[in-house]
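Before surveying the methods themselves, we first show a specimen of the format, giving the amino acid sequence and backbone structure tokens:

:::
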Amino acid sequence: MALAAGALIKRSLSRLIGCRAELFAAASTARFHSAPETLWQNTVPPLDSAGSLINRFASLVVGAGPAGLAVATSLLDSACDPILWVDPHFQSGRLHSYLDVPSNTKTKLFIQFAEWPQHTASSAPEAVRHFQDQDPDKGCQLQLAQEMVTSMTHGLHRDHADKVCLQRGRVTSMVLEDGLWNINEGRAFAKRAYLATGSHPRDDSPYPDLQKLDLDDALIPSKLSGLVSSEDTVCVIGSSHSAVLVLMNLLEMRDGPKVVNLHRSPMKYAKYLTDGTIILDNTGLKGVAADWSREKIETQHFEQTGRLQRVNISETPQEAVQQAVSACNKIVSAVGFNRNPLPKIVVEGKQLSSNDIRHDPHSGVIIPDRLFGYGIAFPEKVVDPEYGHTENNIGLLKFMKYVRKTCLARARTEGSAAGFSVMHRTA
């Protein structure tokens, strides 16, 4: 019997070898640094009881950053499997670009993110060991968070390959037909789709004559040091967490440039209340950025040395703003993010434009019962408890809480996977 089962699996895998390379177009060749390359090359769709390869899924998850991981684990905990999870790299999304950047999140919140899902419980101790030498009430380098997400992804693949198919590649098209998403022209089908496709820094500069420095590069001191010198004057737009980190990197650089900082409002700082509430949780400075700003910006330390000129463009005449900018030859914009490109999405024969893709910021719903969005591209909206303004709720644990709150609620209402808990097989 064991020999027969082995032969069945061997035949099924042989069938897969011929089609795997074309399952998804534009497959990435990037390396997964925490595990052998063969971990992903050998990932196969699960087999049903008859040994047939599955190409129909209860859920499609697009993107494997923190939000995608939160969605995949929440769907598993909600019994909304089998799941097809697609990403070009499976390297924790944009976290992989910010390894040397200090977080504005306390270490203990990263640990809570890892320990929350039931289906990654066995891999959680390994995932959080990266934090063992960190103060739980302070931030840490984002490399540790990246290693945590990567470790959890690895553990999910290792422990639940029968429920989650990790496919490295890209979803290029999604067509809703007869209640199912037709993915990449028939390569796979899913009842529901979850977009966790991420965002990238806005690069629309109001001063096109200045040489642009990518925000991603400006956030990494080792990269930034090769892009500027004492001969430069760099214009930094913004007063966000990212903007302050860029200011810190530029101004603490030995033989660094002069800096002109354009901003609209004074620095804002998150305030922690005794009941756990955080005022300006998403827009206020935290951690290293807050400490440095209080020490060096609020005291006008660098302005007194002639290295920094701060210009409030809401209060300064336009002529004076232009004069300050005219002294600059390079520019970094740190004023937000734009959504990454989405797959082609067709519903009822109509291709949806970017303006058609709107999500409910309280439920994640884009198309009721069929399409949902999460993460920085489709954030939850929350109201600041003191000032009353609306903020995008951004952060790993915030993503996890939001996804679980909405996914688990839908599962309870709709009866788990609504008939998709049994795997479908190819004909």
